Amino acid sequence: MSPHEDKPRPDGTEKPDEKREKNAQEKKLRDLSRRSFIKGAGIASVAASAGALLADRVLEAAPRPQSGGMAGGVVGPGEVPITLKINGQIRKLNLEPRVMLLDALRNHLDLTGAKKVCDRATCGACTVHLDGRAVYSCTTLAIDAQGHDITTIEGLEPKEGLHPMSQAFWNNDAQQCGFCTPGFVMACTAYVEHEPNPTYEGLQKSLGGNLCRCGTYMGIREAVLEAAKTMKTKGGRA
Amino acid sequence: MADYHWPPANRRALIGKREKRIDGPVKSSGRAKYSYDINRPGMLWGKMATSPYAHAKVTRIDTSAAEAMPGVKGVVTIVPEGQEVLWAGQEIVAIAADSEERAEAAADAIKIDYEPLPYLVTDADPEHAGAEHSKQLEARVTGNPDQGFQQAEVISEGHYGLPVITHCCLETHGQVTEWNGDDLTVWSTTQNVSGMAGEYVDGLKQQGITVAANNVHVISHYMGGGFGSKFAADTWGIACAQLSKKTGRPVKMMLERDHELMVAGARPSMHAHVKVGAKRDGTLVAWDSESWGTGGPSDAGAPRLPYIFEVPNVRARHTAILTNIGPARAWRAPNHPQMALISNAAMEDLAAKLNMDPVDFMLKNMNLVTAPDRAKTYQEEFAKASELMDWKSKWHPRGKSGAGPLKRGLGVSLHTWGGRGNLSNCLVTIHPDGSVETSLGSQDLGTGTRTVIAIVTAETLGLPLEAVKVNIGENKYPPAGASGGSTTVSGVSTSTRRAATEALNSLLAKVAPSLGATPDQLEAWGGKIQVKGNAAKSISWKQACAKMGASSISGTGKTSNDLMSSGVGGVQMSEVEVDTETGIVKIIKHVSVQDCGLVIDVRTAESQVYGAAIMGITYALFEEKIMDQVTGRCLNPNMEFYKLASIADIGEIVVHMMTGPGYDERGTIGLGEPPVISPGAAISNAVANAIGVRVPELPLTPDRVLAALGTLEKGGVA
Q1: How far apart are CA B250 and CA A76, in angstroms?
Q2: Among partner residues B101, B222, B647, which is closest to A207 by beta-carbon distance?
Q3: In CATH, which of 3.40.50.720, 3.60.21.10, 3.40.1160.10, 3.30.365.10 is domain B421-563?
Q4: Model ipTM?
Q5: 3-class SS at A97?
Q6: A residues 124-143 near B, CB within 8 Å?
Q7: Fold of A84-238
Q8: Which of A8, B13, B187, B395 has its CA 20 to 30 A from that of A177?
Q9: How far, in Å, CA of A52 to CA of A50, rounded?
C-alpha cells in the first residue's frame, strides 16, 4: 500500500493447521484477479466468501457506520455516503464501496494530479499523502481513506508559485513527459519530511517505489537534495 | 531586414544556453491536463472486451447481460462475428457506462465465443516456424564474402539478440471524444496532432460515419509518453468516437495497463548468428550474418548489417518471423538498437580475440565509415568519451578483472541516425501591446518542443523567454509534422525562425522612420529595436509595437532546409560490475557523448540523452515482453514483472553534447533517437569484458549471466 510504510502484519500467531488453512484460502483468492474481485463484488460479498481472515481485515478497514445502509458493518455493493478530508476540506460523496481513492479523486472530484498508470501499487504515479505518509491511492479504497487527512498535489502546492519540491523538479529538469512527476513530487516530499537530511544513497533506496519511463532520475536525485535544503528554510507544507 | 540564418555564437542570447523548460511549473505542480485527465460534463467511461486467444475466429457475441447492467449506455462491436482475431488482447467489443467501475464490470460481462486457431508467439525456433510464419526480407551480398574470410587472419563467431520489448508509456493510449452536431472533439494522447483528424475521418468512414476533417478538433496539450507508439487513432479511438455518437455523450476510453502492454506498442526482436573476420592488425575484411526477429503479424523491415562499418565483403540475410504477439510499433530509433547490439557486440568479440582495445579496433576501421565527415565526428566523440570514462586507465583485456566474485568491465558502442526536420508550418504574431504568440500544430512529448519554440522566437525578436506565448497541441494551429524519428526539433525551430523573422521585418518596416533609419539597418536585441552598431539609437520593444496601430503583425514560416541538416554520430561507454555469484549486473557509470548540430537548448537536450541512457539501461538489464507459446498470451502485462529501471538502478550517468565549431554550422538536427541506440551494446560489451564471456541475449538478467558463466567454466567462448 505504501512505499514508505512498514505496518506489522497480523500473522505469526496462528497454529500450523490454521496457517495451512489460511494459505489455502489466500491461494484461492490469488487465483482470482484481486482487483476485479474487490471492485466487482462489493464489501459484503467479500466478507461472505473470503473466510474469516480476510473478512476481519475488510471489516477492520470498513468505515464506522455514520448513516444508513451499513448495518452490521457490511456496505455496498450500491453507493454509500463517504466523507473524505482532502487538502483540509471535507468532501462528501456517494460512492460504491469498490471505488479506489485514486478514482474518487480523479473521476469524482476532478483532482487529476495523481495519475493512474500501473493501477496495482508498483509505479507510484498515484501517490498521495495519508496523514503525511506517502500511499498508493490506486490500491487504497476510498472508503478506507475516511477519517484520514488526505493531501493531493493540488493541496501541496501554494496558491501562488510552487512548493519547494516542485520548484526543485523544475530547476533540475526532473521531468520530461511529466506523467510520473506529480507522484514523484508527492513521494519525494513525504520522504524529505521524514528524512530532512537525505543522502544520494538514502534517497535511491527510499524512492524505488516510483517509476519513470522517460528517464528523469538524474534530475530527481538533484531535485530531492536541493528541495531538502529549501524545505528546511521555508518549511515543508504550503 | 533581419536575416533568418542562425546567429553566430557571439550573437546568441538564448540559443545554445541552458534554459529551463517553459512548461516545467505546470507539470511539476500537477496542473497540466493530459488527455487522461479530461473530465467532461456527462462523460461516460469506455472499456473493452478483448480476445484471450492469440488467434481465433469470433463465433458469437452476446452483449445482452452486459447491456442490462446498471449504468450501461452503449455498445460498439469492433470485430464482428465470423471474423478472426490475430493476437491476444485484440479488441472485440467496446462498452460505455456512467462510471469507470460499471464500465469495467460490464466489459467483463460480455460473452464471446471463439473457435481457437493455430498460432505462433515465439521467434525462438525460426527453422521450424513454417512457411506461413516466415518471410525472407533480405539476402544481400557485397564484395566476395568467401574470399574475404579466406583473407581474414582472425575470425570471431557468435550469437547475439534482444527480445521484443514494449513502449510502456505511462499515460496509456486512449482519448476522450465528444460530438457537438457535426463536430468531433478528440482529446488524444498523441505524437501526431496535425495528422490525427485524418485518422478519424478515415477510421469513422469505414464504420459508416462521415465527418469532415475540418470538423475534427484534436487537442493534446500534454501527453504522457509515446516513444513512437502514438501516431494513429487506433481501434479504440474510432470505437470511442462511435460510442460518443451512439450515446450522444462524451466518452473517455483509456487502455488498462495490461491491455497497453499487450497490444499498444512493441519493439521487434532481433537475433543473429554472426561471423566476422579481420586481419591481425584489426582491419575488418568480412562479415556474414543470418538474422531473424519478429514484429508481430507483419514484418518490421530488414536491418542493415553490419552497422556503421561498411565491411568490404558482406553476406547478410534476414528473415521476419510473423507471429501472433500483437503488432509492432516504431520504438525510438526503429531497428537501430537491434543493429547496434548485434554488430557492435560482434565487433567487440572480434577485438577481444585480436587482443585489441575495442576503441583502438573501432578507430582502426574508421575508413569504413562512409558518411562524409562522420569518421571525424566519431574520432572526436571517442576521445571525449574516453576522457569522461577514464577509459585508458580503467580498461583491461577481456576477463582480466581480478580475483573475487565482483568483476568490473568496460564496454563501448557507437551509432548513427538521420534526424532531418519534418514539414512544419509556423505562425508568429506580434500584438500592439508587445505580446508575442507562436503557433504550430505540433506537440511536446516531454522532449522540450515548447521550450525550443519559445527560445527561437525570443532569440529572433530579441526578447526574454517569458515574453513568448507558445500555442501547440491543437490542430487549429498551422499544420506541423508528427513527432517521430527525431524530426521535430528541426521542423519547429526552422519554421519558427522563418516566421519570427518575417514578423520582425514587418515590425522593423513600421519602426524604421521613427529611428531615421532603413529597416535593414535595424536589429532586435536586448528588448529593443536598435540601429545596428549604435545602441544609442533605439526604442524599446513596447514602444516599437505601439507603432503598429490597432492590428497585429504576423509572419509565417515553413521548415527551412538551409537551417538544418541530418546525420549524427554518437559514442557511449559503460562501466559495469557483475556479481558472478548472483549474476546481478550493476551499472557503475555510463557515458553518452552525442552530437546533433546546433543545440537550441542544452538543458532539455541533455535531459533527452540522460533519459535515453536510462531507457537503454532498462532494456539492457530488465525489459522483455514474455510470450507463452502454450497459452499464446503475454505473461507479464503489468509493471511488477515488466520491469523498468528504478532510481537506484542507473548508476552515474555522464552526458556530453558536442557543440561549437564543426557542429553548430550544421544547423539543427534531431536528437530523440540516437542516444537510445547504443546502451544495449555498450552494456553487453562491458559485461563480456568483466566476466570473460558473452551473454548472448538481452536483457542481461541474472539467469542469463550465470548461464554464460557456466559455459565459460566448461571451456566455452572466451
Answers
A1: 28
A2: B647
A3: 3.30.365.10
A4: 0.97
A5: coil
A6: 125
A7: Ubiquitin-like (UB roll) (3.10.20)
A8: B13
A9: 7
